[in-house]
Design goal:
- This protein has a single domain, classed as Roll (Nuclear Transport Factor 2, Chain: A), CATH 3.10.450.50.
- The chain has a 7-stranded mixed β-sheet with strand order 1-4-5-6-7-2-3, covered by helices on one side.
- The protein is built from 7 helices and 7 strands.
- Helices cover 39% and strands 25% of the residues.
- Helix 5 runs antiparallel to helix 6.
- The protein is an alpha+beta fold.
- It is globular, with a radius of gyration of 19 Å.
- InterPro entries: NTF2-like_dom_sf, SnoaL-like, UVR_dom.
- It comes from Nelumbo nucifera (Sacred lotus).
- This is F-box protein SKIP8 isoform X3.
Length: 226
Amino acid sequence: MQCSVSNLFWRSRSVLVQAGSSSSQPAIKCWCRSNAVLHGRTRSHSWRPSQVKSGDSEGTLSSEGIVLDEQTLERDLQIAIKEEDYAQAAKIRDSLRLLHEDSRASVLAANARFYNSFRTGDLATMQSLWAKGEHVCCVHPGVSGISGYDLVMGSWEFVWADYEFPLEIELKNVQVHVRGDVGYVTCTEVVKTKGSNWGKQFATNVFERIDGRWFICIHHASHIDL
């Protein structure tokens, strides 16, 4: 049964199984559990969107740039500590704190880490990026939702087994929305694997802040025509 899921479903990220296919749905339904997407997050809020596009002009947030800035600051911090330049280390810590306090930037950085782990096939990092709990949900293209941390991680293991890395992933029309300890990113993800055509999905990634860190709790990708 799992072999059927791997062959018919997880390749859908690149080949894109047609939704409603009678051949793939029975196997998928045996493995997946559908569930409500959000639990306990039904209060009405006025979400503030901020659109982000790769290559935008100065002053616009870029998720890839944020991750690079964070990595550079962390590297410089380690160098300052090693050289016992504690005044410089304190300044770098302040810069990191300000970066983390910018909620929109932090959510975009978490989103970039998610796609970087997907792009490189880093399963250990993918596992660390998700919130732990039964409320997490992943909807891969063409099937119903998979709920619960263990089952969601199992689904990514199937994805990893079926791909050749690194992948080519291009994100377009990225928008970030944040309210309190919940934020989400919408984007169009264009994925290409070796020997396959481009596949295009509209994705929504929901993040929750736990102990000051943003974790992904929902990933929903739906196939759209190229």
